[in-house]
Amino acid sequence: MGVDARIPALGRRCYLRDRPGRECLFSINGPQAVLPLLSHLRLRPSRDARPLPGMRRGADGSEGECMRRRAFILLTGLSLLLCVATCGLWLRSYWYQDDVGRHTADRAMWVLLSWRGDLVASHDTQVGLPRREPFWATYSGPVNDYTFGSVRWSLLGFAIRTSTGTGASENPFTFRTDYFLVPYWFPAALTIILPARQLRILIRRAKRRHSGTCLRCGYDLRATPGRCPECGTIPGPTGNA
C-alpha cells in the first residue's frame, strides 16, 4: 500500500490510498490505533538505491576500481603500440616482403608472410620426398610475385586459396599448399578500438571540465562544487573520473 496522505494528529481522521482510485478512511483515537494503521503501510524503495562510489575510500574509489583502471590503461598502451606496428608493416608490405617459415621433418612447411597489404599464412605438404632435419627459414627483401593458386573462398579481402601440382628433384613428388589471406585493415581495426575509446573518454572529460559538470557522471556541479551529489566524486586534480 502506498501512502498518498500524511498521518494527522491523534483523534482526527486521515485518508490512505491503497490503490489508484480507491481511498480508505481511518480514525486515530489514541496511540493504540497507530500500530494497526502503520502495519498496513509499505515503503517503496528508491529506484536508484545503490552505494555512492568514492564515499568510503575517498575520491579515488575502491582498490579494485583503481586496479581495473590501471589494467585498462596498460592494455590501451599495448594496443596502441600494436596498432602502430601493424600500420608500419602494412605500408612496408607494398615494397618489401617479410616471411618466416618452419620446415618439418615430414616435408611439411608452415609460413607466415607479409605481402602487398595482406598477412598470408600457408601450409604446404609434399608427398614422395625423403625425410629431413627440421629447420626455420626467414626472408626479407623486395616483393616477389605470387599467384597463391585458385580461389576457394573470398570476402572483403579475406580469402582461402589452394595450389596443387607435381614436381621432380631426385624423386618425383606431389604437393598441396593452402593459403589463408587476412587484409591488414582487420588487425589495424582491432588494435585501434581501445585507443579510440580512451581518446573519446579524454575528450568527454575535457568538455565536462570546461562546462563545470562532474567528470564521472556529468552531473551539474554549479550548486555543489565540493562534491558530486550523484556519484560522490570530488572535483579537482585528484578527483576520480
Which percent range fits the helix content?
A: 25-40%
Secondary structure tally, helices = 4
Beta-strand residue percentage: 25-35%
Radius of gyration using CA atoms only: 35 Å
Order of helices and strands: EEHHEEEEEEEHH
The residue ranges in which pLDDT falls below 50 over 5 or more consecutive positions are 1-12, 21-28, 31-35, 51-60
Going across the biggest sheet, name each strand in turn.
6-3-4-5-9-8-7
Structural class: alpha+beta
Tell me the total number of β-strands: 9
Q: What number is the mean pLDDT?
A: 78
What kind of sheet is the major sheet?
A: 7 strands, antiparallel
Q: What is the molecular shape? A: elongated
The rounded distance between the terminal residues' Cα atoms is: 40 Å
Record keyword descriptors for this entry.
241 residues, alpha+beta, 7-stranded antiparallel beta sheet, 32% strand, disordered N terminus
Could you describe the 3D structure shown?
The chain is built from 4 helices and 9 strands; from the N terminus they run ββααβββββββαα. It has 241 residues and is of the alpha+beta class. Among the domains are: 1-43, no CATH class; 94-183, no CATH class. The chain has a 7-stranded antiparallel β-sheet. The chain has a two-stranded antiparallel ribbon with strand order 1-2. Strand 1 and strand 2 form a beta hairpin. Helix 2 (63-92) runs antiparallel to helix 3 (185-191) and helix 2 packs across helix 4. It is elongated, with a radius of gyration of 35 Å.
